[in-house]
Design goal:
The chain is mainly alpha-helical. It has one domain: Four Helix Bundle (Hemerythrin (Met), subunit A), CATH 1.20.120. It has four helices and no strands. α1 runs antiparallel to α2. The chain is globular, with a radius of gyration of 16 Å. 18% of the residues are buried.
Amino acid sequence: MENIIWDPAWNIGHAEIDKQHQKWVEIFNRLRNAVLSESDEKPDEVQRTTLKEMLEYTHYHFDSEEKLMKETNYSEAHGHWRLHKEFDKTVYEKYRGLEGNALILNSDLLSLMKNWLLGHIQTEDQKFGQYLSSLSI
């Protein structure tokens, strides 16, 4: 699995949200590089540390995005928020599993993160970006 290279086409046209999405991709790439490296650090510790960072950043980013949706009266906000909550729950469950010494395959973790991040940014966040653009924000 390759690192994610940011594609400017994924920008939604809101500087802060675009910057946050890029930061999210950086965290994913760090997770990918760490779990696939041959360092002396235990793979489960790398997963745990980076997954915790992803979870914390997810909360920060989702709060920012949801606040903007509320401020702009985005009509599809509730469905979008539901997707956020589902992903947050999934990441939290993975993190709690690692805390409980569950075995989580690196490939499963990386696929989950990459597929969700890219899928969400390229579909749901693009819709929100189009909405923001129509408001000239």
